[in-house]
Amino acid sequence: MNALELTLLYLCAAVISVVACRLLHLPAMLGYLFAGVVIGPNALALAKDSAVIQHLAEFGVVFLMFVIGLEFNLPKLMRMRRLVFGLGLGQVVLTLLGALLFNLALGFALQHLGYRWQLSWQTALTLGSALAMSSTAIVVKLMADRVELESPHGQRVMGVLLFQDLAVVPLLVLIPALADMGEHNLWRVLGIAMLKATVLVGLLLWGGQRVMREWLMLVARRKSDELFMLNLLLMTLGLSWLTELAGLSLAMGAFLAGMLIAETDFKHKVENDIRPFHDVLLGLFFITIGMKLDWEVLIDSWGWVLLLSVVPVLLKAGVVFGLARLQGAPAGVSLRTALYLAQAGEFGFVLLTLGLENRLIPPTWMSPILASMVLSMIATPFLVMKADAIVNRLISNDWLLQSLELTGMAQRTLKTEHHVIVCGYGRSGHNLVDLLKLEGIAYVALDSDPDKVQAGRSAGHPVELGDATRLSSLMAAGLVRASAVVVTYPDTASALKVLAWAQKHAPQVPVVVRTHDDKDLEQLRAAGAAEVVPEVIEGSLMLASQTLAHIGIPLKRVIRLVQGQRMTRYALMRDATSPRTDEDAANP
Questions:
Q1: Average pLDDT over residues 122-143
Q2: The pTM is what?
């Protein structure tokens, strides 16, 4: 099979599998894995796991780490530091320690039974590293679809996922170091590897940010998208080559490249430009993973596969549940967090493949482990969909605690009428309630972040802990008695849920929705939004008004021009007329 035929085969298998997964509402990643299983040498044998394909798949991991680097920033890390370095760090460390202790205990038990256990602690640590990872791609997509990213368990899940992404970087250094240690002292080998990483990272972050910013500015001034993309690929692959030359991994260089670009003004442009390469090459990586599955081994070792699918999921869920409870989370929130994070992840495949390449994992173990990881990922959407039912069955007082919280909110808002329900107490919500308070208008703010709720109450605002996308929270806040509902955060999926509940239970209450731009404007209006306010439009109007005022246009004329633009866009202003005084007429 020549290169063109092989490429067409991969593309055909990927397209068919991904379309099937989309129809079944499953993540696209599972489609790539299934495509690899079907066309691989252990099934239909239509394609071989060639070295060329392996190299292309490695580029998928490189671009995945590059995107992770783009998302990494210190302000975000500091905001979530309690969850990231508390729950996230604890989960990864305890999983690694658990793998080592389990290997030690199993070896000790088998030795007493007359069996010889040959799994080294280095192998156990490598397997523990893969087990510690959860699927960011699957979990974030499911939570976004269910509008749970800002929920109490959603924030904990995101904190753990963020730390797991960061933990990949030292693990990429650790695994090759474990393989190279031989008879050498472990701390010496790890020390040299970490010294290399520290020196390289320090040099790049110390002088690299300014160089990167100036260089990207120079390239951008050429006004050529083609040149900008070529330069982006050059920097990503160039830094990957540099880190590999230093004895580290390709992926680590890509992560550093993403971090450097994240500190420039070109971050969002780069994210949009690199996305097609990232998605396609990462899909190719998952196809090659699927090709490693050997059906004969699975049939012969189905018991091991089942055991490896169930036991790690239960152990990992137990670790997350226990840590979340230690941090003070309610039992229901802790269990939901555990269920969302119990599966294997895409970085687990990366670390597992790295362990195989460095001869830390026996080849005969690969198929059972891969199959168990894939099965746990396939089970994740179903676990998430049934999470509420599982929590209600296992934690009898979860519904009672939620009922008490809602009852308390309902009692506090019982005497409030003709008020405004403000969904979201972020910066926009805070500014809105300040104006409502100034005008003496009653209001109740809802937010699912306990820190924001506490901050709002400290500022003297009636802010309640609740999820605005749930009918119970809206009703407890007095939806049927409200004069208006405002969605202050630009999340279309969440706004559509709020609109659906308002239309069904309080159609007389107008709902005003904030969006980033006017892309979903018609969809939101069709869903019942009384008005949609795109922040990009409002920003451009304010920008225009300031510009006109500074070049000498009379202030009243500027106000009239901006008001006229708003009249053409917003329904309540469309038929309004701007009153003009004699002074206005004299100064057109």
A1: 85
A2: 0.68
